[in-house]
Amino acid sequence: MPPTGPAVDPSAALTERELEVLRLLAGGHTVKTIAAELGRSESSIHERLRDARRKTGVGSSRELARLIEGQKSWDRKTGLAAQAQTADRGKAPGPSGRTGSKGLAPMPIVAAFSALGLIVAAAPSVQQAMVEPTAATAPATTATLAGRWSLDVAAIPAEERPQRVTIAFAQEADGRWTSAVEIVDADAGRREGRSTAATDGVPVPISGNLGFADSVSLRQPATNMLVMSLRKNGAPVSTRVYALAKDGRSMTETISWPNAEDQKLQVARFVRVG
Known about the structure:
By secondary structure, the chain is of the alpha+beta class. The protein folds into two domains: 1-92, Arc Repressor Mutant, subunit A, CATH 1.10.10; 109-272, Lipocalin (Beta Barrel), CATH 2.40.128. Helix content is 25%, strand content 30%. An eleven-stranded antiparallel beta sheet has the order 7-9-10-11-12-13-3-4-5-6-8. The protein has a two-stranded antiparallel ribbon with strand order 1-2. Strand 1 and strand 2 (118-122) form a beta hairpin. Helix 1 (16-26) crosses helix 4. The chain is globular and about 55 Å long. 30% of the residues are buried.
């Protein structure tokens, strides 16, 4: 079977100039170096990035750049898979009735959480392992992550920095978790998302106007950790691991992306505000 993967191309709504800036951003450039590379002013580069975020509903330019690169990588993989499938059609089946081709093996992702002394090893990928439903995980006995959390926005580049990002976790009587996210952008635009899901990896809808995701699935490998996998129109967007610090006053958000060729993880810090 051909591999499953992104069904929505985020670049479809963007102009070639906007894509050019995003590709340079994904390649490690800053707004300053992009402006120098293209012979444009930094304000014009900021304007293109703002337009791209507005068209796609993605709140971070770097996140959008990763999605664009992930789609390009996925397009390459699908082309290779289609070629391999065509070549396999002429092969005689083996003893089990399958052709001799072993197909393409996805790359494993290993995420290290040193603050907790815990290593999460997910194969074939964090995204796949956390989204595929399996037997329900028993609800945690202590809702250590319950409460309201505020993102430390000072660590975000100025051109992408929102005014405020908050997330609230609450565990229901039946063990399910309710997650409520509020994002106030630099221009005071407000986006919200709310969901209630069991920790069994089964996707549920997200209500609100987040834009970059419309469903979420949860797993809880430990009482002080939640794994949240986001999707848009059935396609993976990101997997986010929320881990509570020992003092209970802060938590880290570690994000992995669906592009298996990019093993880099993004880490953010939240502080408890309620």
